[in-house]
From TrEMBL:
Superkingdom of origin organism: Eukaryota
Protein location: Membrane
Alphabetical GO biological process terms: response to symbiotic fungus
UniProt KW Metal-binding keyword: yes
Cellular-component GO terms for this entry: membrane
Name recorded for this polypeptide: Phytocyanin domain-containing protein
Keywords attached to this entry: Copper, Disulfide bond, Electron transport, Glycoprotein, Membrane, Metal-binding, Signal, Transmembrane, Transmembrane helix, Transport
GO molecular function list: metal ion binding
């Protein structure tokens, strides 16, 4: 993700097993410490969509068990500009129109390491 460019209006999509993970938006200090605010602030649907509406750094983490400390966290920087228009694929007989960038998807899946760490708890 560190090489990705995020723009105003992009959407982050967090897909995960409901009840196994959650998503918190936190500040930089909480991100470094893997500290979560109150449970009521967690996104927990398993298909959480966050529209990037303001520029700047954004921090997200999973607040379940030791998931954050095991690397289930994300930091991004959102550009102050809207996403540049993409050139449409040429098709015969169609006129060219501009399209917004597709949704930016961040998929949280258990890796082999995370499965091992969870089983050790």
């Amino acid at each position: 993700m560190k090489d990705k460019t995020f723009f105003l209006g992009d959407r982050l999509v967090f897909n995960y097993g409901q009840g196994f993970h959650n998503v918190y938006r936190v500040n930089g200090t909480s991100f470094q410490q893997c500290a979560t605010p109150s449970l009521s602030e967690a996104l927990t649907t398993g298909n959480d969509v966050i529209t990037l509406a303001t520029p700047g750094r954004k921090w997200y983490l999973c607040g379940v068990g030791n998931h954050c400390a095991s690397g289930m966290k994300l930091v991004i920087t959102v550009s102050s500009a809207e996403a540049p228009a993409l050139a449409p694929a040429p098709t015969s007989g169609s006129s060219a129109t501009n399209h917004k960038s597709p949704f930016i998807s961040c998929v949280w899946m258990l890796s082999a390491l995370a499965v091992i760490l969870i089983c050790m708890m």
